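Exercise: predict the fold of this chain.
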Amino acid sequence: MHIWIILLRRRQRRIIQVRQPSWYDPIVRSQNLGTIFTSDRECIDQLRMDRGCFRVLCSLVREFGGLRDTRNMKVEEMVAMFLHILGHDKKDRAIHKEFQRSIETISRNFHKVLKSVLKLWSVLLKKPQPIPANHVDERWKWFKNCVGALDGTYIQVHVPAVDKPRYRSRKNNVATNVLGVCALDMQFIYTLPGWEGSAADGKVLRDALSRQNGVVVPRGCYYLVDAGYKNCEGFLAPYRGQRYHLQDWKNSPIKKEELFNMKHASARNVIERTVGLLKIRWAIIRNPSYYPIDTQVDIILACCYLHSLIRQQMGSSDPFVQELDAFMQQQEVNGDTIQSTETSSQWNDWRDKLADEMWNAWNARRQSR
């Protein structure tokens, strides 16, 4: 009987050793998670947002995303693992020791959180708000009733070899063509990833306009767009054939078209900064990942939604904004030409009138000095 008990205990120990890997340690896991939340600085380094923003996100995925604690894991840990993967582009195998969880557990909960975050689009995307006539910001005061700016950007993706020709962009990267629309405060109003890199920007914009929950242009309002887009109702483009990009302005403008383009570029730059900030924060979208393409598209959407949440909650205290200027200097000027809409003579006349007003005000200010 005594020998039987000894053999039984040995068998139980072997079962425990098989079921519980040697690296599994709940104490170490608790310590590692605790370290993340010791300060806002540490939380931002690890999860790309401060502790207050993290708490808000956990509340949102519970209330609107349907995410729930399980017997073995709380929502906070699921979300922390998810953000860690997005922020540092680490594979499941690379982080399972940090969180003391199995690779299967990490993968399963990553997709659970991703699904929950995607449900937050109506909560996190900003509603279009026209600029009032008395706006004081020098960059925007001329653009009454403007609701923001839009542009396309390429984000590299991994696709099967048979699909690579369709996804190859003009820069020869395998990428998805992503339409981004943002407000003055760098919050996303709308974003549409998923189109092949070879797709014309105009085709992407037309698709966004035709969707049930696509780009909304309120009556009498408009977005700022670059010179590749047609100047038409709802979309205000600069004059073609004139200086435009901010790095072009070493000397003062010499005619109304140049002055208009200078002010237009200064305001429309908000979408370029928004996309730049998005890529600085989330390393997972700076390089192609090996998730299925549908999952890669969902990850891009989630990064955009989380970007808007961070802008809402952290504002000017976001340290990644300080890195933005250096990042923007390294980016190429986007010179894409697209055919998205039909030019409107009425819209061209309105642009000319606005340029005249800018030019007259600018000359009057110079003469009064």
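Check your answer against the key: Residues 15-23, 332-340 have pLDDT under 50 and may be disordered.
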